[in-house]
Structures are given as structure tokens and as C-alpha cells.
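User: My advisor, Dr. K., asked me to get a structural model of this assembly before our group meeting. I'm new to this, so sorry if the format is off. These are the inputs:
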Amino acid sequence: MGIFGWLPQRGPKPAAPDDAPEQTLAIYASQPALTTVIVTLIGIEAEQIDEIIDVTARRFGKKHRIVYLTDSLDFMRFRDRNAIFEYLPSALEQKLHAAEISWNAYLARRWRLLVSKWQPVHVIGYGQNIDVFLAAAPPMTARTDR
Amino acid sequence: MARPTCNICGSSVFGDTYGEKDSAFLRQNVRCEGCGSLERHRLIFEVLRLRGLLSGNRRILHLAPEECLATLFRSRFGSRYLGADIDPGQFPFAVARLDLCRDLPTLAPASFDIVLHNHVLEHVACDYRAVAAGLHRLVKPGGLHIFSIPFLEGGFREALDEHIGTERTARFGQSDHMRIFSPGDLAATLGSVLPLPADYDATRLVPAERLLAINVPEAAWRGFNNNAVFLIERQEDGRALEAPTPAVQPASPAPRPPRPDGVLFVSANGIGQGHLTRQLAVARRLKHRPSAFLTMSYSAAIVRDLGFPVHFVPHHGLTGEEPAAWNDRLAAEIGLLLEAYHATTLVYDVNFVFDGVIKALGEHSGVQAVWIRRGMWPAHHAGYIGAGAHFPIVIEPGDYAGECDGGPTVADRAKTRLVPPMLLIDPSERTERAAARQALGLPQEATVILLDLSRSANPDLMRFHARLLDDLLARPDLHVVELQSPLTGSAAPRHPARHHRVTLHPAYAASLAWDAAIVRASYNTFHETIAGGIPTLFVPDESPDMDRQVDRARWAQARGAALLHRVEDGETQRAAALDRLLRPDIRAGLTAACAAIAGADGGWRNGAETLARMLEGSFDEGGAE
Amino acid sequence: MSTALDVLFVADVRFEGGTSTALAVEIRTAARAGLRTGLLAIKGPLLGLPFPMHPDLRRLIDEGLIERIDPDMRLHARLVLIHHPTIIENRPTRPLSITADRLLVVLHHPMYDGYGRRQYDLDRVVAHACDAFGSDVFLAPVSTVVRDSLPRRLPPYAHMLEEDWGNLIDLDDWAAKPARQPAYPVVIGRHSRPDPLKWPTAEEVLLAYPADGARFRVRALGADAFLAEKYGTIPPNWELVPFTWDDVPAFLGTLDFYVYFHDPAWSEAFGRTILEALATGLVVILPPHFALLFGRAAVYGEPADVERLIDGFVSDPERYRSQSEQARRFVENNHDAAIYADRLARIMAAPDEAVAPQGGLFPALPQRNVLFASSNGIGVGHLAQQLAIAQRLPPGLTPVFATMSYSMKAAVQQGYQAHFLPHHRILDADPEDWNTCLAEELFELIAHLRPAVFAYDATAVFEGVTRALGAFPDIFKIWVRRPLWRECHRVFLDFSDRFDAVIEPGELAETFDHGPTAACRKETFLVPPVLHLDPAERMARESARAALDLPEGMTVVAFQLGSGANFDMREVRGALLAEVLRRPDTIALEIRSPITPEAAGLERLGERHRVVELFPSFRFSNAFDAAITAAGYNTFHEQVLGAIPTLFVPNEADEMDLQASRARWAELTGRGWLMRRDYDLGFVAAHVERLLDPVERESVVRRCRSIAWTNGARDIARYVEDHARIVRTDWDITKLGSL
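Assistant: The format is fine. Below is the predicted structure of the whole assembly, which you can bring to the meeting.
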């Protein structure tokens, strides 16, 4: 997996941090001491984001880096709190642009990329579960002459 | 008034024509410095322009293509433009090779919108009428045949033989002219094959002011001249050359193809050229149907010279082939040619009908079979008469001496069609005496005798010919003309001034040049003599397989139309015959008697013309049989 | 179901000069003849620089005379015309579903140039054309010279067209020049693309173009500084006119003689400029090798003969008139566009009734994605530029955004698909690790989107980006790169060759740019300044004021000093606000960008200090009487082109472009004022006084309105459109081994 051959074959529940293999895509490959937790915030109201950030920061922030996975466009909320976040287009956005890309294929690979990038020790879900989100992603709808 | 401008290239600077110093055709201030155009080119361009013919995808055949026109045609018509010449190398642009004397049949009839040639017909080294007619046939109905030719006064004259350049300049205006046209007899010469206008006035094509503006001076406007442009529209024929409407189809099972049906002429290797000549007489009078020849005769070249395709098959007597196999192959050859030329008529002119011919006719039952069977057969050819069963149409060219024909054909008249005598050239087509003499380099005032006995395979005749030659040349002030052929070889003249060896075909065209002739009495020669009123001493060829020449000659002698001398007659009689021939009063009497014979029955009609009309007319519409 | 065309033109539409002009003539004539035509654009190997589509060809598409063809379309054409053999010397990098009754390759050049160098590989040309379109190939040389250069034995499947594909010119566009008798001083001239090779050697140039001002005036179109490089000083009687597409006929009309000599190193295949000169009826003097092509339409000689030849015509007016007439007539007879319709009719097979072109609408072009990628989290500058382009794309092209900007929401709100790529700084990650991830993520996105064009807008080019792009050699990659770089950014110039085109949105202050990009101008596609919104598209003043609740009678000063993230503006901002609000009739309208950090803690200084969040604020700017802003590219050009009298306070942080230069230019050209945070804090009062002076403002407005400007966004959008449906043959796909 991975066109450049760096992504390891791993699933969402990785092994213990000490087992980090060589040649990974990991974003902190040069800084192996840090561990990461992904917090998914899919389908969450914008107002609730602040609260979730506070809660999770208190709970995990001391031992791990937290990466938020959001489908909200309100990036400043994360920015203002210096929170690291990744964005996935929401179900509505996917539907609006279903003729332009095959969302189910793309998002599935994107998720695996994110996991390999962040090498999370935990994945915690708020709002919609990531698997449900991925399963609901539409295939590419027909375009003329494609 | 503004300076005249070349309408082709726009230049307004003109110079004098190029040409040989003593050429008859030098003119001043008419040659465009920009593109080299002369008056005729500008006139042609103007007419084309006015008629909107310079665009649209037209097929153009342009002979001896002048660069001033060729460049423009190529730009506008691209691959539809064909520039052609016998010597393509002299042109600075790509030109196809085309020998008008041989290659016209390679071009499909009715395939060009415009056929264009300027000052070409005077150069062709073969029958110009065949070339002109052949070119005309290439024009689509509704298309244009555009050309110009040079003219000199004094009547049409030509010489296809080895005249040297200065002689040609003197006679024809330019060193490479084979002939020159003359305004007075144009209708009789070129006009005999093309529908030419009776007179010429350029202002009918382009208004006078415009002519001056494009530097076509008044001198070129009226009367036939070097810059007169003939613009002949090809008419629709009664028979459409393209796909005809089905309504007028004859009751024939095969659909009429769009190509015109060809005629295949088949002849053998009989002694002399008689059969071939009669077939050529018919072929050149066909207006619409293409002709092709299959012959066993070594004189095949004369067919080619007249512009027809000729195929040669050697007789098995020459090759040693087994006759049955040879006949099979002959049948196959005929079949191939019938298909290749899309021929629906086969014309045969030999006493003896080969098995191969019969077989071919059997295999192509849709082909009309015509047998030209002249009379005066020797008795021992009677067995050949039966072959007439294979020919639905038997044509007998008339013989003036027919009443003394005692041969086998007389009895077999039931289904033969008698037509007038056939000659390749009508007597009226001959060149006038003065012009003919000039063309042959003969003095206008001397007595000229034609001696032509040696062009045969008869050794007696050839010896006799040689003795006569001596006799004749011994007489001072007498000029002798001998006809050369591949059979006679080419020896040098025996006398520098009075002995003329000429290669001329057809010689009859020049026959007004001589005061008397000493010839055999073959069918053609005999009828040329009588119809042409040539005072003649006949020396019949009495070879066993020849036709009954002696009968003809006697018949003529009996009527005072000719003198007769037989080879076996003695030397005294020979001398006497010559003496008589050289007497002007005798000659006058002979001529008068000939005229009386030829003038009977309404005057001269050419049986070849009759047959040609039949082949193009009544036969087609009524069904073959 | 295949669409039917009469003629499909296949060409590299970017060629300058004669090649494209000739093609335009063919297309227009074919359209006039009622033929249904299409144009398939090829990116061939000859042109490496980012030339746009030739305007003459573009116009034909805009006017509907020819259909733009997408390589995905299923087509059958009666005739496919490939112009220029080099464009098919490499295989097309993708299959085509286009078939033809007849396939022609027009050969514009001889196979070998004057030095015997091979100009194209005929075997490859024929083989690739045949493979791509599935037909035998007919070679159509433009002249006998080209025809004769071809080998006797043609490659398999190749045939020679019987006729030449001569160059054509539309005489309607080239009126005959005014009839005029030449007299000394005569005007001699020429026109050509600006290329030193098109000019003769230094030894010969003064023979051909004499410096004797008493007898000659020399006018040259397409000549500029390069001539001084070639020859040293230019004689005073020479007039050099820079190259222009328009009005060449008028230029030629001013000449008496057309003299064209070139460097021996140049091999002229035809010389369309000469044809144009002949068409106007000029007396043309050429080197002898042109005689094959032009015959008596021109006169020939060596440079040393020029004066003598000219004298011959001056002393013989009739000859001059005659030669002039011959020149034009030659073109009329042999190169008139009117003969093209017949030529096509000859070449095309008769239409097959079963597949006759159906009437009615041409099928729509297939949808294609265009991926806009941009960097940075500071400001909305890059994203705004891309939105400016995206909004001007035609319906068949779908913009998709991938950005590192927090303002990504703006793109989504405009209705576009958008993806977020967090920058390594906020991730606190090592740049190398981050680039590795970025490469992978971009690869996935591109692989799924399959964009036809990738448009990158940033100063910095990230390794991850170039690595991902390297996996997609066929995508057309554009770098939109604004100028006015600092020297420390020079290193990014090296990335230029990873892109197929570098487009530089123009700077009003371009004369102040001596940064690294200035030297590269010649290799970029320069467009006028880019604005997201055209000034004419703004809300009218009354509506804007009403929307912003700004009463008449008050002087509204807009404040837009940037987010302050990297350059602290608080002090200067406070001082300016206070000064503005000292007057009773002012309103200070502070416009916040969507990404201003909350923590900036803006305090309001009274009722007449309003804070609004507006994007795009420019839409409302007719409401403002004056403004105080930073001098970022977008804001600066909006202010000036929008004719809003502005006091510019540049953000002079190291990573920013040289905002101060812009502001300086504005001040020195009377189109604004400059105040620098570190230098001018003591002069706030004077700046504000001047800003609020109506006379001063009126002067600035007038000067701003005098700028002739068209929106570069439109040029870039058209450029994207022209490159979104190309077939690439500029690289050899057979050599695509491992990455």
C-alpha cells in the first residue's frame, strides 16, 4: 500500500508504540517518542467542538498528541486552540460533489493513509463512528462521456 | 488609356515573342515579362475567368503546359489538374508523360471538364486528326475543348518524315512543326474531326475594350490566326456516354455499361496492308466508340501511327506453334481484348477465318461479329466462304471492277451487305498538288511519277520494280517518288535531285503530287487510283493467294481508266507502256475515264463511313441480329 | 454513438506567428463553407515555454466557428488534418476514439534543414499518426521544396498527397496598400517574430537596411532590444516597432518596399510574413532561395543588390506599379483562402450517407476536474486568487480545492469540493516527515480526482507536492506565481521546471520588482493583475452603504491591516484609528478576515468604530471613501484598481513578498500613499489629514481610473480551459519506466 511504498500493512488498532516499524509514513517518524490519539468529530455541531476539545485535551493531552478528525469547516475553532486537526468532507459535501470523485474509494484510502500517518494508539469517536461514515460514502455517480 | 496589363499575373511590362530567328511567328510587345503569357493565354484566361471556370473542382488536361497557366491551375485544382507532354523534362515543374500518338487510349473518355492545348497539334508526329478527335473524346459532355494552332496561308501541308529543320521552317513556319494549318482549308482538315466554327471573332468571347486592356491586339481578333482560341463545347450525344436512362435500352439482357462499347478489329498477316487499311478506314470514322486492333501483320505500326492501340499475335507459321494450341491461345487473346476494351463488336477482315476466331466468337455470344469481306477472291479460297456462318453481318466493300468478279464470294451474296468502296482517306481529303509537292520537296513544274511495286513479298514484282526504276531515272527531267516502308528498307536515293524516297503514310494523302503512278492493282490502290483520278499503269500482283488484281486492272484498262502491264509481258511492251504513261494527253484521258467511273451513282461515297455509321447507329438500336 | 465531423484539425495551438495564423485561415474558410469542424489541441515537444493558445485560434472557438474537442470524445471525421509533423513525433500519451475516412499530416518544413539537420523523424510521425487514428497517412507537403525533401520510399502506411498543401491567406484581411509612387527617402521595412536569427548577419545588415537617412527610412515590426545585442548601435533612421498581433496590414501599408534577409543559420520553410507582404501589393526583395516559392511575384538578390534594385524601381514608376500588381495577383491566384473549400472537397471522400453529420447540437464536452492547490495559513491571498480563476472557468471544468489555508471554508461556500492539508508548522512535525505524508496524501487525491489541470498557487513549492506530481506526468501542471519576491525565496525558483507552465499574475508595481522572478519573466506566461472580483462587479455605492448601514454624509475609512499574525500592527493600527476618529464625520470600518485570531482582542473605540467580518470585502468597497490597508497582492490591487484612495501600511515580515515596493509605487505614481510601521509612526496625523482631504482623494481616484486593465483571472481561466483537454506528445511515453 502506498505508492511510494512507505505505508505499512496495518489496521486501525495498531500494536504498542514500541513496535513502530522502520520505513513508516509516520508524521513523527523523526520524533518517535510522541504517541498520538485520533479523536473523530463527525457530524458534531460546531458549538460542541470547543467542549470536546477541552474534554479530550484534559483526558489525553498530557500523555499523547491529539489529532482531531472533523467534517466541520469551522477551522478557526481548532486554530484558536492550537489543536491539530484533519478534515474529511461531510456527507453533505460528498453528496454535492458525488459526480466528481469516487468518495467511497477515496475516503477509504484516505482513512488508511491517516492511520499510517499518525500511527494512533487509540481512535476515539464522538458523533458518527468512522466506519459508519466510511461505509456511507457514495460511489461516483455517472457523468456524461466518462 | 491605361497601359495594358497581363490579366494572369498583373504585370504591365511586355516584350517580344521568343522564337527562331526566321520563324514565321515573331511578334512584338505581346509577351508578358511577368509570366511569359502570349495573347492566346491571356484570352483563354479571360474567358475562363468570365465564365467562372477558375474554381470548383474541375478536371483539367493541359498539354504542353505553359507555366503562366499551369501554376495557377495547380494551385486551384490540385490533383484534378493534369499537365502532360511528350517531353516532361523540359518543364520546371512536375508534368506527366503523354505521347499523343500512342497514349490517348490510356485516358478514359469523357473524363475531363476542360482539355487545353496551345500550338500542340502542329507538332504531333502522327495523324493529327486522330489526335484531335481523341482529345475531343476526352471531354465530358458540356465540357470545353480549348486550343489554338498556328496558321499560314497556302493550304494545309504536312510531312511526317525526316525533313530537316530549315525545310520545316520554310514549309511550316517552325523547325519542329510537322504540319501547318491554313485558314482556307481548315474546315476540310481539322474541321473534319472537330466541330469548328466557320469563322473567328474574339470580340464574341471578350469585349473589345477588355481585349485591349489585357494586351490582345486587334490583329489577333478576327480570322483564324495563331492566337485564335477555339472553344468547343462537347455536346451531349444521342447516345449518352455516361450511364444512359434505362428506357431506351434495346432488348438485351446485359445492362448497358457507362463506358462506350469498343470495337475490336482483328486481322491476319496477309500479304500487304490491305485488310488493316480497310479496318483503319472504318476505325477512324468512328466518332464515339473506341477501337482496338489485334493483328498478325507486321505492319502493325501503321495502326499505332493513327493513334489506335494495337496488339500483335504472330502467326503460328512464324513461331512453329502447333496450330490447335495456337488457335486456343488466339481465342484467349481475343477474349482478353474484348474484355479489356469493353468491345461489343468484333470486325474481321481476312478471307480465312481462323478457328481461334470462331472459338472466341462462340465464347462471347453477345459480341456482334462483322466480317469485312471484299470480293475478287481467288477460286481456290472457295472453301473459306463457309465461315460466313459465324458472322451475322458480312460487309462487302464495293469494287468498281465488281462486275468481273468471278470468285466464290459472288455466289454468297444472300446476306452480305454491299457498301461503297472503302478507302482510308477520301479523295477529297488529299493535300492540294502544290502543297503536297512542297511538302515532299518536289519541284512544282516537273513531271513526277510514283513507282510503288516493291512493297510486297512478290520477288518478281520487286525485280520488275528495280528495272522500271532504272528506266525512269534514265529519262531526263523525270522525277520518281518511291515509298519506303519497313519492308523496303532505306537505301540512299539513286539520283540526288530526281529520285525521292519518302516515308509517308498514308501516301494517298499526297497523291495529287504526282502526275502518274505505277502501282499494283490491290483493292486499296485500285480504288485510290480510280476514285482519285490518278493516271496509272497497273502492274498486278499475281501471287496465287492475292485477290484477282489482274481482273481489276483489265477491267480498268477496258474502260480506258488505266494502263495495264503484266510482269510476264516483254521488255518492249514495258517501254511502250512507259511512253504512253508519260504523255500528257493519255494521262488526261485516263483521268477523265476514272472520273466517269467514280462519279457514277451519285459520286464518291466511302464504304468505311457507311460501316462506321452502321456500327454506331442502326446496329445498336435494332439488336444484333 | 460516435459524433460525426467533416474536418478535425489536430494541432499545437500555441505556435506563434505564421503556423497558427495559417491554421486559423483554414478553419475559418472551412466554417464558411458550411463544414462541421473540430479542433483537438496537442501539446507538442517544440514549445517548452507556457505559450497560450494563439488568439486567432481562440477567437474561432469563441465565435463558434469550430468546436473544441476533448480527447475522450468518440468521433468520426471525414478528414483528420494533423498540422505539423513534430506534434505526433511522440505517441499521444493516451488512446483516442477518433476515426477518419482520410488522415493527412501537413508537412510545413522540409525533412532536413539548410544544414542537413533532420527536423522530424518521418517513420515515427507516420507510425504514431496511423496508430492513433487507425488509418493510412497521407503526407501533404506545403510546397515543392518540402515535397522534394521527402524520401522516395515512404514508410509503411504512408502515401504522398498528389497536390501541395499550399499556405493560404485571407485577402479580406490584407487590403492592398495605398497606391503610392516611391520617392527618396523611401520607406523599406519588414515584419517578423522577435528572433535574432530572422535578421541578417552584422556584416550584411546595413547593406540590406541602409543607414543613409537621406534616402531610406527603415521600419521593422517585431524588433526590439535584441537587435542592439546583435548589431551594437541601431542607426537613427531605423524605427523599431515591438511585435504585435494586430494591425500588421496597417504597418505594411506604410512601406514602399519590403526587404527580408535573415541569418544563414535560419532555414525558412515558407515565409508567411512574405506572403502577407505580397498580398498587400508591396514590392518585395528577397534572397534568391525564395524564388522557388514566389516566382516573379518578388525580386531577388543579395543584400549588396538591395540599393540598386530599389533604385531601379524608384526610377521607373511603371515598373514599380507593375511589380506591385504582380505581387498581389500572385497571392490571389495561388494562395487565396477561397480555394481551400475546393481543396477540402477534393481530399475528403464523398460523405457516407449512413454517417452523415447529424444536425443539431454538438455534444457537450465531458466534465473534467481542475485541482487548485495552495499553501499557507496566513491570509486568504492564494485561495482568493484561485477562486478568482475557478469562478471564470466554463461549466465543463469543475474546480476542486486542496489547500493548507484555514480559509478553505470560502471555497466550500462558493460551492466547490475542498480538501484540507495541514501545514507542518501547525503539526509541529519535521518537514521531511511531513513532505513524505503530503506526497502520499496528494497522490491519493489526484489519483481519485484525475484532474486534467493542476494549478498551484504559493511561493513555496513543497517537496511533497513535486513528488506527488511526478507520478502523474500527463497532468498539465501550472504554477501561479506572483512576483515581488524577496531574495531569500530564490531557492524556490528551482522548482519551475517541475511545472508545465509558470503563470505570473502581473503587478502594477512591476518596475519595482528586481527580485528573483524578474529575470525569469521571459519564461512565464504574464497576465495582467488578477482580482477575484472585477471592480465593475461591485455593489453600487448606495447599496453597499445601505447593506453596511453606513449613513450618507459620513466619511467612511475602511481598515484592513491584516491578521497581524506575523507582523504586529497593533500600535500603528491604534494610532491611525484614533486619528481618524478624532474627526466628527468619520466612520472607521474595520474589516476582519475570517482567520483573524480571536486573541487579538480588538477594542472598539466608540460608536463610529465598526468591526465587520466581510468576505470578499471588495464587493462592498464602493461604499468606502478611503482606506487604510496592508499591501498584500490582493488587497493592494483591489484598492488601486478599485480606485479607493488608500494609505498603505505594508506588512514587512520576512516571509511576505515586498509589500513596501507596491506601496512605494503607488505613492510615486499618485495612486495611494505609503506609511511604514517602523518609520512613520510619528507622522500619523499628517498621513490621516492627507487621506481625508477630498482634493487629494479625488486626485488619487482619477489617477487610479486612468489605468488600463483587464482581469488576469480571465486570462488564467482561459489558459486553464485551453489546457484541460489537450493531448500530450511532448514526452515519450514509451520511456515511462519505473518512477
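One thing worth pointing out at the meeting: Chains B and A do not touch (no CB pair under 8 Å).

User: Perfect, thanks a lot.
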